[in-house]
Amino acid sequence: MGDEDGVSFLVPQVGVTGEYPIALDWSENLKKAGISATVKWSDMTPWDEALQTGTFDISSHWWCGNWQEPPMAFAEWQSERIKPVGERATAGNWIRLDDAEMTALAKKLENTSPDDPAIQDLYKQAFEQFTKLMVSIPVIQTTYVMPFNTHYWKGWPDETSIKSVPFTWWCEFQFVLYDLKKA
Fold first, then answer.
1. Any idea what the Cα angle at residue 124 is, between residues 120 and 129, rounded to 5°?
2. Residue 122 region, left (φ>0) first, then alpha (ψ -120 to 50), else beta?
3. Around Cβ 14, how many Cβ atoms within 10 Å?
4. Is 7 within 8 Å of 35 (Cβ atoms)?
5. Phi-psi region of 36 (alpha: psi -120 to 50; beta: other; left: phi over 0)
6. What is the spatial order of strands in the sheet that 36-42 belongs to?
7. Least confident of 23-27, 86-90, 108-112, 142-146
């Protein structure tokens, strides 16, 4: 964690990524505002330990959520899932968000069927509360080009037929492969 005079950005070292320069930019801007800030590039294991135990000031990293599934998107942000700083967050809520309104909305979402029309309004309320609390600050959305060759196989996803996440490094990619047919 940062010293009493400033904050520290913790960045996971996972090859060449945009997280480090983003943290440097934020650090420089904080310094312009009179706030001392440093950036520390960390190996993955100590970075994850700091994240899960809450022993960090700010982390600059990717953030994948459960945004595609509204009932579960906010489940981990319930107050009773908070662990004290120093203990691993084993049930989610590694940010240690403690907000009664978010907890209530998350519980309602968990107990509402995905096909219940009321879930849309609940999801909207939860998203508005989440953004109001500024739990995180999205800086960029990385775009990845996923080229596929149709010479030998057909059924690859394109802009009109994405049924699953087409990133080859995600486990959901298996569902893309299941739909392929010999060309």
1. 150
2. alpha
3. 13
4. yes
5. beta
6. 36-42, 6-12, 58-59
7. 142-146
* 83, 89 Cβ separation under 8 angstroms: yes
pLDDT of residue 168: 85
| Farthest-apart Cα atoms in the chain, separation | 63
Q: Whole-angstrom Cα distance, residue 176 to residue 166? A: 7
Please give the DSSP secondary-structure letter assigned to residue 99.
Answer: -
Phi-psi region of 86 (alpha: psi -120 to 50; beta: other; left: phi over 0): left
Q: What is the mean pLDDT of residues 95-106?
A: 95
pTM of the prediction? 0.72
pLDDT confidence bin for 57, thresholds 50/70/90: very high
Domain boundaries, the chain: 1-62, 65-140, 143-183
What does each C-alpha distance from 12 to 59, 136, 137, 152 come to in angstroms?
8, 16, 17, 38
pLDDT at residue 130 is higher than 60: yes
Q: For residue 80, name the pLDDT band (cuts at 50, 70, 90).
A: very high
**What is the reported pLDDT for 4?**
61
Give the tokens for residue 111: 């107990």
DSSP of 144-167: ------TTTEE----TT---S---
